Amino acid sequence: MCVASRWLKKEWEMVFEYCLEMACVCTTMLVVVETVLGWREEADRKLGYAVYTWALLETREAGL
Prior knowledge:
By secondary structure, this protein is mainly α. It has one domain (16-62). 92% of the residues lie in helices and 0% in strands. It has two helices and no strands. It has helices spanning 2-37, 40-62. Helix 1 (2-37) runs antiparallel to helix 2. The chain is elongated, with a radius of gyration of 16 Å. The two termini are 28 Å apart.
């Protein structure tokens, strides 16, 4: 049972990190579109979210 729960936890963490990465990519694409359209305030807010998400991923990979 313990081995199965560790495996499940590891799989869940991989899915979570993948979802974070995809959310960050989509957010970055939205920032580009909104910047081109002239929606600076909305683009700045989303860019802050994307930077925070990438920092979170890097911190998790570093084991901090």
